[in-house]
């Protein structure tokens, strides 16, 4: 079948309103039951596990680590970790109106845990592990491994610990080994994100005994060894790992946590240039071109020779993040002046970026209301291109004659980001602002986010859990998480975010706080939203089973090759 599919997802938040009911529907009497699954020797779509090899190229960089907890691990690494490691639970799936498949975060399903039971008071959950699950080295998976892995995630710092904290998973004291097959999580407080936070990529289950010989005083969690080695129990093992060149995954024939994948071997090739990736697909040398540029989405679709899928990415923005602190790198920071940030936000050539950099393959996030009327997220900011307004605001700022600054972007996104920064550079020159463009290698861009040392960056953040307060917890909260690219800190903003996190959708308190922090974001404008992007994939017509995931990576377990 040769067709283009545009997967319609909610631009806003409506799906989240059914979360509580959806999770309760997964189990009766507060106990999750294992759904019917295909036998271990068949693929989920019904095809027998075979000997097919799938060859994949992807944009946005190449996996730079096998350890998802490592500082600086990039987004493409999520896809590899997703299949070499298991988590206790995974998300269900749903069929969309056009017949396409998407994950369903309102439904939790068993993965390494075959079942779980909530305490009557709702303040803990107890998981029963699969008794036949083994790691890739053949040793059994036990609750001790689960506890060590959870302890690592909340203790190692950086993004993993921020992610666990988002679901009120903050301390090793919360995690308890009942026996070899039983693991208990004690809740710090009622939190709508706790259960679903245990199904995102971060809480992977690691073979603790395998890592133990590699622990040192300087590296108590084995990060150096896990950076290049596999200690998982997932559906695929690492057959070959050549950093920055190629990764070969091989199906783990003793995998027990789901239906056996149809594809036996997956070859990931590092092909940085979009034109070369496209040429490989057109010649038939690769099966899947993932994270296809907006230009190639349009043109490959027009050929009629490939299956092209475009999905608006939930809870995601491309944005210009402006460092909001008064000082940066020991010097006065012009972007710490809100009038400067507002001026820049009015000078950005939004329509030109949408048309020439993104080829119309995105949802505009500009030209909206200054006072939010809904809790939809993302929603358009009130800014549009208005050079007269931009000049007036800059004249009112402490930098009326302009200044010199730097705008950095990830070279893994150069197909759209490079023309975008050039357009911004040209526009800001009209204000007397000289913009130097910094091209950051994709493998290093996560470190740039962590350092927060650049005045401006092009950011590409999407919240895994589809709530506006979750997005703002990462992108606007004063804890200064990795994805707060502006290093924005405002106690009033923090109060509103925390109040929303502690309440439920549909409550007036929740709605008021969400609208409040969105309005504050527009006034303070530490980031200027550009668009809600689409995730594009182009496949040979004999490839089926593609499913959109919130982590924006392929799930090789679900793909089939005829």
Automatic annotation (TrEMBL):
Q: Which residues form the signal peptide?
A: 1-20
- Principal location class: other
> Which subcellular locations apply to this protein?
Cell envelope
Q: Kindly state which keywords UniProt assigns to this record, in alphabetical order.
A: Signal, Transport
Looking up InterPro entries in the UniProt record yields: Peptide/Ni-bd, SBP_5, SBP_5_dom
Name the Gene3D superfamilies for this protein. Answer: Dipeptide-binding Protein, Domain 1 (3.90.76.10), Dipeptide-binding Protein, Domain 3 (3.10.105.10), Periplasmic binding protein-like II (3.40.190.10)
| An annotated GO BP | peptide transport
Any GO CC annotation of this UniProt entry: ATP-binding cassette (ABC) transporter complex
Give GO terms: molecular function aspect only.
peptide transmembrane transporter activity
The Solute-binding protein family domain covers 108-481
Pfam families on file: SBP_bac_5
Sequence similarity:
Belongs to the bacterial solute-binding protein 5 family.
> Which PANTHER family does the protein's record reference?
PERIPLASMIC BINDING COMPONENT OF ABC TRANSPORTER, PERIPLASMIC OLIGOPEPTIDE-BINDING PROTEIN-RELATED
What is this protein called in UniProt?
ABC transporter substrate-binding protein
This chain's source organism reads Leptolyngbya iicbica LK
